[in-house]
Structure formats: structure tokens, C-alpha cells
Amino acid sequence: QVQLVEFGGGLVQPGASLRLSCVVSGGDFSRLNMAWIRQAAGKEREFVTAISFHVQKIYTADSVKGRFTISRDNNRNTVYLQMNNLTLEDTATYYCAADFDSSYKLQDMTAYDYWGQGTQVTVSS
To answer: CA Rg, the chain, in Å?
Structure first.
């Protein structure tokens, strides 16, 4: 069973940076497409960014493009989300998600079978 655990959330001021990590166990990480998805209080889940298993495809939502960067380290079974220039609107619980099926578009949240428990990111002055 694939398991995902997120790390790195916290409370920061606007303009700050954070790096989230998601460590995967129980599956062949090198074959997993990985995504970061967030949910703000009272709002629907929002796709943030995703990276294909072969790293040849990355898809990023317009709302974070130019500020957030996804990357992966297959030797560490870890995917990262580097978040720069954070704004109040970035406050949310951030979830790591994974899937083996590459027939779906990376930004299709319904395609992801495995999810972490989430890590809270709060941007506040």
C-alpha cells in the first residue's frame, strides 16, 4: 500500500518562502506521477502542480505559476514543493497525491489514488 507523508507546513508572513516535502513508501516511487493539491477553509480542493514519473511533464496552475516549483528526488522517494513569495491566498492545507496511471492528465485531481494527510500552510501578517 502506497503511503504519503507531508512535511514542512507552518506559519509565515506574506512574501516568505516555504518548502514542503512528501515522502512516499510502499510503492515504486519512480513510477508514480506526483501532485500537490490544496484546500482552503470553506473552499473546494484546488490543483496546484504535478510532475510526471519520468519528469518530462510538469503542469502548474496559473494561480501559482512563477512562484511555486515542484521537483522530485527518486533516490529519496520524495517530492518537493518550493513556494516563494507567499500570499494570504496561499493559506490552505496542502496535500500530496500520487498515481501510477499516466493515461490521465496530470491536473486531473480525480486520477490520484493515493493521498497524504495534508500539512497546513498559513500566511499571515
So the answer is: 13
Say if CB 13 and CB 123 are below 8 A apart: yes
Per-residue model confidence (pLDDT) at position 56? 81
Closest among 16, 20, 15, 13 to 35, alpha carbons compared: 20
The whole-number pLDDT of residue 114 equals 97
- 84 vs 75: CA distance, rounded Å: 25
Residue 88 phi, psi (nearest 5)? -60, -30
Helix, strand, coil share (%) of the chain residues, nearest 5: 5, 50, 45
- What mean pLDDT is predicted for residues 114-121? 98
CA angle 14, 46, 22 (to 5 degrees): 75
Cβ–Cβ under 8 Å, residues 70 and 81: yes
